[in-house]
Amino acid sequence: MKEVVLGIDLGGTNTKFGLVDREGNIIIESSMPTDVHETIGTFQEALYKRSSVLIERANTQLVGVGIGAPNANYYKGTIEYPPNLKWKGITPFVDLFTKYYNVPMVLTNDANAAAIGEMMYGGAKGMRDFIVITLGTGLGSGIVCNGQLLYGHDGFAGELGHSLVNVFGRTCGCGRRGCLETYVSATGIKRTVYKLLADYNGESELVDTSFENLTADQITEAAKRGDKVAIAAFEYTGRILGMKLADAVVHSSPEAIFLFGGLTKADEHIFEPTKRYMEEHMLGIFKGKVKLLVSELNDRNAAVLGAAALVWKEKIH
Amino acid sequence: MKEVVLGIDLGGTNTKFGLVDREGNIIIESSMPTDVHETIGTFQEALYKRSSVLIERANTQLVGVGIGAPNANYYKGTIEYPPNLKWKGITPFVDLFTKYYNVPMVLTNDANAAAIGEMMYGGAKGMRDFIVITLGTGLGSGIVCNGQLLYGHDGFAGELGHSLVNVFGRTCGCGRRGCLETYVSATGIKRTVYKLLADYNGESELVDTSFENLTADQITEAAKRGDKVAIAAFEYTGRILGMKLADAVVHSSPEAIFLFGGLTKADEHIFEPTKRYMEEHMLGIFKGKVKLLVSELNDRNAAVLGAAALVWKEKIH
């Protein structure tokens, strides 16, 4: 039987999971709702049942489980104080899940998982120093230095979504103000559009959509049609992202920075200003040296793949 | 004969050098001017002559040379575009110095050297994840992750002095504006005092000193005597440093941050506000966890020691 790792991308709303072979092929995948489960117990039971069906159906042998989750503590296998999950406090996810599977398990945050996926199966193959920025509901990041994922003392390294842009700025889910992800994320650009609708007095096709209903995809489509506010929103996003990437560069001196996620569908609308402002704010010795690239896992489920890749990389042979 | 490494702390004005044994004792040390040498050739010749005298006098055997220098490229052994040295462009320091010594050599920036010194002989013994911030004319930093000094792709990682506080802020020697070291360094606090002398209309004992003559030590002494402007200058410095340290923490999740250098002589005047603002701006999962410590190498020549320590650590056995 083919050996596979179960990769799990645990999100606030949905959880995606799939069986990944050593070469990085997702053999079969599925998803289930996260937020209907009030307790970790019923969630893990449901996840076990559904993943077992996949394992059997694909006629495979499970050799490991990799989980990408928000606020994941790699060292302890715990999820700690996640703002977007119903399980509050500290959840010992890995310990509890050993009730179901007796194989090596690794838990890390979804952006770290994406970085490992990029290194093993994507555009970072052969690179030893790079950063992956995931642009979803929030902004996640995985930092690789000297070929190793940066975990730090607490296992929480690489939380660039909560680096500070403006301490008097936008309210953040973390309880502070002005974090990078309040500007640069699917949610962040929506907030920017609303700010700009005010500045431009509503000269935009986005004027008919409520705050609740507006999506990053709509903003992307509007920008591609030449909508002034949508284009300005990407410029604004790229300015802040570019500036903070220049700061990230002085920390870890990466060879490349990969952008992953929905916002990258805007292509040059997001890449051009981000690159321009990154170079404008870059310290001289780094100018023109750091590649800004689109993730090569963009069309695939990077967190499922990456969580599984981490197990293949660290736990098996 | 006792084996020693020649540790060199190459600064813009002076160069300090000493012979360091494996246990981190500086057996003998000396210094010479840097800025009288218009070319690297005459500088290295003078350095060789003076260090050879030390080696002979101490009756030791040289087994390595470690150099801490500004804008040092660890991988290439070069000093690249240093704003404060007379040798412009790229100087292949290590290659040229092999003319004099045929032993393993390592070149890195002085803050990286200080971080290695802290790890081998100072307060970071046994730590795997920490940051050393050196507060001198500028602000240097050495980042250690997973027990390894972070060099990054280009060998220039850890340039936190050039992370951005305010892109419209103070002019920096690097040609940009608002870099951290324009606020947080011996020079930075002097600029802050002058700003505050304006704000407070000169209600300070520092009002009699010219910009050119004012030193960080004078500001420290004034603060200890209760001078309003000097105390406010440390508060201002601590606010900006604390905020940027919170940002550094989300990058690499250190166990501790060490402050090194002249400004730390101000004791609680600098540590208390830095700690307070660092905690205020800290992401929840890191709050109360990251130690802010004074370097245990403060009274010793950390860059000489650290440059030598790097050779002992990486090049010998």
Automatic annotation (TrEMBL), chains A, B:
It holds the Pfam family ROK. PANTHER family: BIFUNCTIONAL UDP-N-ACETYLGLUCOSAMINE 2-EPIMERASE_N-ACETYLMANNOSAMINE KINASE, ROK (REPRESSOR, ORF, KINASE) FAMILY. Belongs to the ROK (NagC/XylR) family. This is ROK family protein. It comes from Shiella aurantiaca.
